[in-house]
Design goal:
Residues 17-142 form the Guanylate cyclase domain. One of its GO terms (cellular component) is cytoplasm. Among the domains are: 6-189, Nucleotide cyclase, GGDEF domain (Alpha-Beta Plaits); 210-408, P-loop containing nucleotide triphosphate hydrolases (Rossmann fold); 414-472; 477-586, Orthogonal Bundle (Arc Repressor Mutant, subunit A), CATH 1.10.10; 961-1105. Helix content is 61%, strand content 10%. It is built from 49 helices and 18 strands. The strands form four sheets. Strands 1, 2, 3, 4, 5, 6, 7 and 8 form an eight-stranded mixed β-sheet that branches. α12 (370-382) links the parallel β11 (357-363) and β12 (387-394). α31 packs parallel to α33 (795-811). The protein is globular, with a radius of gyration of 40 Å.
Length: 1106
């Protein structure tokens, strides 16, 4: 194999298959053979070995005495080099058997093969060779092999298990290695030509190709009714799923079109012979027409005489030709080829006629031999009987068949990745993180084989975290199974293009022409255009570096495969040049600074790398891009200052457990009087507050609030105010937030940190005003906070303001405005990586859609939010989302599910805030009431009433006492019911009208009517004012309002039917307002419906009315 000029030779790191073979028996032969005869024998054997190695695409590295070393994958990769090495080994063993049979000798060879990374290099200007552990292991495997056997490592088996049968030899200790090596013996080659060989370790889930199957089926049905041979192409890169698509399609044909003859053949680049593809097709057609007769000369002659009216002489001649052709005993000259093809064309037309309809799948058609190509083309022109379809499966368009239908396969998406994870890793698809999906698709571009191999690789290397599924490492090598395929495509390029591609791979997945030209020292515009035409790179419309042209590698795995070819020394040199070029760019943001740091790190310049990583992290954190900042800081040395920065990011991202562990394990190393220790304590306080551990939160603020440092003091007073806010003590919250503001103003603080604290102060004041229904004041404070955060570029804090504004507009029932604020917040939060804030936004979107009565959408948002809160271990937020979900289940009449959810919360989090426990007991009471469990409902209501009384929460007490009145009414104790209504009446003026108050008013009026036959609880004017809230409630609330409205003298017209959305409930208007329904069946249906929905009070009310 020509390896070019050694003067321009560049070492490369390559994935190679290394074969070592050692001949046994020469020593015995030398005792009775003349030295010259022995030399002739050795020359003939090694000469044949050289021929076999090079025929199979290998590189003869050296002969050493009676041993041979061959390399597959260097200097050229073929994508199947391990297979080529084994085929070479089998051919060498077979040749020795022939020698022994001819000469009566007993020469045997032991062979060892290993696959892995090695350095392809020239030592002292000599012929190139491969160096490294991969080579040493191959030689040691050969040493332990038995004569006549081929031993391989498990890495070889992983790449070739579809092609060969293996016998497990076991773990073997070899010289020079501490760990044992798993060894297998090659038993035989698998006969894989007649079936689909799907790439990969298992049959991947077949998803995302339904449309392609539909198109193929439509085209096939059209062509099978037309005489002649028709061609289609299915194209796409290696591993994209072409063969799998055809396998599924073949299965469908066999089921739906049993009369169609279906064949599959694979064009093999190693075993290619003239007319190979045509030979396989002819053999299969003959097997179909003479299934029980061996294809001997005599049988073929008889078949031709009987079926095609040939004379015995003509049948014998043609039968002999076919026999010799099928058994590869025919040598073709150009003249003989033309004559043979001419005779075959006529025969083939007759065979096709008898077969009727047939489909041929021709896989790896890019390797088809030129003679088969010519013959199939001629066939398509001349065969007019029967109907045949040839589906050519190829990596690229072929351009030499008369194709009238093409499908180009692209990568698959998220659903495929999830299903592979479920199959390979046995995980619930809901536990797969979004980050995992994104990284997999970025690496592989959805190539099914690459996805599968990468997931196996990450699993086997222990690089996965579960619940949720994530990748542990930011960087990792790529599987050898994938590298060979990708490098083989790169090796097909001219050397100048390969070098440009290698330099580009150092810059990154995204690279820029100007930077590339600066590090390579030459213009590369034409070369980049050529690489884009070849499909290796893609030009981008917008460039990250202003004034430069940006390109991107087709996928990240391709870039990594190209990068893997370079030596460490070459990589370091180019990384340094890239960093120096990027440093020249002005106005560098966090992304550019990170790139510079990365390239200096790869160049080994750790001091410069550290400086740029820290600067990038600080800028990212100030913008609220916490994930990005964390990634930067984790590249720094672990000092107390850097630990604090990492913990800040973890806290902002909601990873409280790891933040706590990090802070607690380092705080003891700090001086008691240091400002850094106070910052540690403030951060610990904030984490404990989020975990609803308020005593610990206050404890860690004791020193900081009295600090002589005004920034520390103002910030810690704000944090103390926030803790008071969280426990519902608004008076103290206002007090401490005002202290914080006063400190900032007194000292004229204007640093970034001080302004951030001031913005947080105004945000908290907005919250306090909002909860007290002072909406105008709240908006004023929120706007001041938002303005500060925008001024300092604190995007995530700005997102929090947007969330608070959305809550305010939710309270004002301006749902579209609330939703717009949440969507804006969502776009900001996605860049920050904060799962906590993402969950808060989802939770609030659930509230929006609940109020819009889109209950399914609301449920989905609440469930997603709750899932994140559970994952982050935030009891208070889990409880809040559970309460809202239980309300959804209440509305959807799934009372058992709601009750179960609340019971789980109480059991899991017994230390929740009293206010939340009270709400849970109240809601449990409502659900039990709906389920008809009045005793259990009463117990829950009593518990909630005790809690709300202690908290002086009159708003909640009002609702509880109305429900207690409802229960007593239904239990027949009208006196108690009226007492509870009276107590509720005394509380109703303590808060403004809303949906829940409206519901309580109507329930109270209905209880009074059932118990006293009249309604004094509500007057007509108050009832009329409730209508705007009623229209936002459920159909049952609207029916209750209409009935009470009618009783109080309101005139109810038929137009009021439009208030009710559910068709069956429209009848209730007639039943409750106009007692028209006399039909017992209709009455029974309506009463049954209300009972099933747990509408016990409304049911009792309707009975009273009628």
């Amino acid at each position: 194999m020509d390896i070019g000029s050694l003067s321009s030779f560049k070492p490369e790191r390559r994935i190679v298959a290394v074969l070592f073979g050692d001949i046994k028996g020469f020593t015995t032969l030398s005792e009775f053979l003349d030295p010259e005869d022995l030399q002739e024998l050795i020359d003939s054997i090694f000469g044949k070995f050289k021929e076999i190695i090079e025929k199979n695409g290998g590189y003869l590295d050296k002969f050493i005495g009676d041993a041979v070393m061959a390399v597959f994958g260097a200097p050229i990769s073929h994508g199947d080099d391990a297979r080529r090495a084994i085929i070479t080994a089998i051919s060498m063993q077979n040749f020795l058997e022939e020698v022994n049979a001819q000469r009566g000798t007993d020469i045997k060879m032991r062979i060892g093969i290993n696959v892995g990374e090695a350095l392809w290099s020239s030592i002292a200007g000599e012929k190139p060779t491969v160096l490294g552990d991969t080579v040493n292991v191959a030689q040691r495997i050969q040493d332990i092999a038995e004569p006549g056997k081929i031993y391989v490592t498990d890495s070889v088996v992983n790449l070739t298990f579809q092609n060969f049968y293996f016998k497990d030899v076991g773990n073997v200790r070899v010289k020079g290695r501490e760990e044992p090596v798993r060894v297998f013996e090659v038993v035989d080659e698998k006969p894989g030509e007649s079936e689909f060989s799907i790439r990969g370790r298992f049959k991947t889930p077949f998803v995302g190709r339904e449309e392609e199957i539909r198109k193929l089926e439509k085209w096939l049905l059209e062509k099978l009714v037309k005489p002649g041979i028709h061609f289609a192409e299915i194209t796409g890169e290696a591993g994209i799923g072409k063969t799998r698509l055809c396998s599924e399609f073949k299965g469908k044909i066999l089921i739906t079109l049993p009369e169609v003859k279906v064949s599959f053949f694979k064009c093999d680049p190693i075993k290619q012979l003239p007319l190979y593809a045509f030979r396989k097709i002819l053999e299969d057609l003959l097997s179909a027409l003479m299934p029980h007769a061996p294809k001997t000369k005599e049988n073929l002659s008889q078949f031709l005489q009987k079926n095609y009216a040939l004379s015995k002489i003509d049948a014998d001649i043609l039968g002999t030709k076919i026999f010799n052709f099928l058994n590869r005993e025919m040598q073709f000259s150009d003249e003989l080829m033309k004559e043979f093809l001419s005779s075959m064309l006529g025969l083939f037309e007759l065979l096709v006629k008898d077969i009727g309809k047939f489909v041929v799948f021709l896989d790896d058609c890019q390797f088809i031999d030129s003679e088969s190509k010519y013959f199939l083309n001629e066939l398509s022109k001349k065969v007019s009987l029967g109907s045949g379809v040839v589906l050519c499966i190829s990596r690229e368009p072929l351009g030499y068949f008369p194709v009238d239908f093409t499908i180009e396969l692209k990568g698959l998406g998220e659903d495929f990745v999830k299903k592979v994870c479920r199959t390979v890793l046995q995980v619930d698809v809901n536990s797969i993180s979004e980050d995992f999906i994104v990284r997999m698709l970025e690496k592989t571009k959805g190539n099914p084989y690459f996805v599968e191999e990468l997931i196996y690789f990450l699993r086997d290397k222990g690089l996965l975290e579960f619940n949720p599924l994530r990748i542990r490492a930011e960087e990792y090598e790529i599987p050898e199974t994938v590298t060979g395929l990708l490098v083989s495509s790169v090796d097909s390029l001219p050397e100048p293009l390969r070098e440009i591609l290698k330099a580009a791979s150092v810059i990154g997945k995204h690279f820029w022409r100007g930077v590339l030209e600066s590090i390579s020292g030459k213009t590369v515009g034409d070369e980049l255009n050529e690489l884009e035409r070849e499909g290796f790179i893609i030009s981008q419309e917008i460039s990250f570096i202003r004034g430069d042209f940006e390109y991107i590698f087709k996928n990240e795995l391709l870039r990594e495969a190209v990068y893997s070819l370079m030596t460490k020394k070459e990589r370091e040199k180019l990384h340094r040049l890239v960093a120096q070029q990027l440093e020249k760019i002005e106005d560098k943001d966090e992304h550019m600074l990170y790139m510079i740091a990365y390239h200096y790190e790869k160049a080994g310049d750790l001091m410069d790398a550290t400086r740029y990583y820290e600067e990038a992290g600080d800028i990212a954190f100030s913008k609220g891009f916490y994930s990005y900042a964390l990634n930067c800081y984790r590249n720094l040395k672990e000092t107390p200052e850097n630990v604090y920065k990492i913990a800040q990011c973890l806290e902002a991202l909601g990873d409280f457990e790891n933040a706590l562990n990090l802070l607690n394990s380092n705080i003891g190393k700090l001086d008691d009087a240091s400002l850094l220790k106070l910052r540690y304590e403030i951060l610990l306080s904030g984490i404990y507050e989020k975990l609803s551990k308020f005593e610990e939160a206050f404890k860690y603020l004791e020193e900081a609030v009295n600090s002589t440092n005004p920034e520390i003091s103002s910030y810690s007073n704000y944090k103390k105010a926030w803790v008071y806010w969280r426990i519902g003590d608004h008076e103290n919250a206002r007090r401490y937030v005002n202290i914080s503001i006063e400190i900032i103003e007194r000292y004229g603080l204007s640093t970034w940190d001080a302004l951030k604290t001031l913005g947080a102060d105004f945000n908290l004041l907005g919250n306090i005003e909002q909860v007290n229904d002072n909406y105008e004041k709240a908006i004023s404070y929120y706007e001041r906070a938002k303005s500060i955060f925008e001024e300092i570029g604190e995007l995530t804090a700005r997102a929090k303001i947007l969330i608070n504004l959305s809550q305010l507009y939710l309270n004002l029932w301006k749902l579209d405005v609330a939703e717009s604020y949440l969507q804006e917040a969502l776009s900001v939060i996605k860049n920050s990586g904060s799962r906590f804030l993402l969950a808060v936004v989802m939770h609030n979107l659930g509230r929006v859609y609940f109020n819009k009565r889109d209950l399914e959408k609301a449920k989905n948002y609440y469930e997603e939010a709750r899932k994140i809160f559970l994952d982050l271990k935030l009891p208070g937020y889990v409880a809040e989302s559970s309460i809202n979900l239980a309300n959804i289940y209440l509305e959807l009449f799934d009372f058992e599910k709601g009750k179960k959810l609340l019971d789980e919360v109480v059991l899991s989090y017994p230390d929740l805030q009293p206010s939340r426990i009270g709400i849970i007991f109240f809601l449990s009471g409502v659900l039990n009431y709906r389920l008809g469990k009045f005793k259990e409902a009463k117990e829950s209501f009593i518990k909630s009433e005790e809690i709300f009384a202690k908290l002086n929460d009159n708003k909640k007490l009002f609702q509880v006492r109305v429900y207690r009145a409802v229960l007593e009414c239904l239990l027949g104790d009208c006196d108690s019911a009226v007492i509870f209504l009276k107590e509720a009446k005394e509380l109703e003026g303590s808060f403004e009208l809303g949906l829940r108050k409206t519901e309580a008013f109507l329930n109270g009026a209905i209880v009074e009517y059932i118990c006293r036959g009249k309604i004094n609880y509500l007057d007509f004017e108050t009832l009329s004012s409730l209508r705007s809230f009623v229209e936002k409630g459920s159909d049952e609330m609207r029916i209750s309002w209409l009935a009470v409205y009618s009783i109080l003298g309101g005139k109810v017209e038929d137009e009021y039917r439009s208030l009710i959305h559910e068709e069956p409930l429209k009848l209730l208007i007639d039943f409750s307002v106009f007692p028209k329904i006399k039909d017992q069946k209709s009455r029974g249906y309506l009463f049954g419906m209300l009972k099933e929905r747990g509408s016990h009070l409304l049911l009792e009310f309707l009975k009273k009315l009628n």
